[in-house]
């Protein structure tokens, strides 16, 4: 007994071994009953195990249940930033597609830190989700590439599925959209509208898809006879784009007739900076982005961009996360949408 003023020691959690002993069965048999294995257990043993578990107040281990069943009802989605309009829209589409087939989605955020991405994947391996979808942007030279590949391959060895979205830096199932070709087509259409003095806003982080967008835009302009595209790889954000525009000299700004940014979010930052300088869009400078995020419907003037069919990307990613088929890489087309922010220039 406890003396006056003494508190009782915390009760030890009931384990699967405790249930097995109380039911008079082996631990694997108790596990098959309580963790939902497909292997059959004799009705008399099942009744004894369930009765002992109820009497002892046993709480099942969810990861163990997933392993015993060989599946889980959860897809783990790993993204770069939840605050980024593109990634929040991507997450919403994947959740919608997963819920349509009775699955749930957990979300982990890397903050664009390769080491954090690796740590998250290690944690997810222990949780045994049905699939891991990596939708964060891949790196040109990923510092943790070999370790990340190793973790994901170990996860696949336990029956999990790995799906990548818009990153070709890892050897797993991939749903891609053509960053290079989408930007290239946009540049060719804008060159056809008369744009010649262009500024391309890229990323100071060596992100593979952002590099492809800049290279595609420059290629499209070059093919159209425009070889003077200026490239700036600065802070990869709305704020970074706005501050760069505000920091340009008046002479530099006067030379521009177009600002292209590798994301719509950065394009809107550039738009804000141009307006703060007293410039009109599109009368003084045209602006274009990439992604066609849903919030663009509230922007005036309507922003020229490259459309990415996130619903098709999400549908394909969830299908690949839940099928046992071995599929080839799927590339979803990305195509330019010319809007009011880049009207034809007067000759």
TrEMBL record:
Coiled coil: none annotated. Keywords: DNA-binding, Transcription, Transcription regulation. InterPro entries: HTH_LacI (IPR000843), LacI/GalR-like_sensor (IPR046335), Lambda_DNA-bd_dom_sf (IPR010982), Peripla_BP_I (IPR028082). This is LacI family transcriptional regulator. It comes from Kribbella antibiotica. One of its GO terms (molecular function) is transcription cis-regulatory region binding. Gene3D superfamilies: 3.40.50.2300, lambda repressor-like DNA-binding domains. Residues 14-69 form the HTH lacI-type domain. It comes from the Bacteria. The lineage of its organism: Bacteria, Bacillati, Actinomycetota, Actinomycetes, Propionibacteriales.
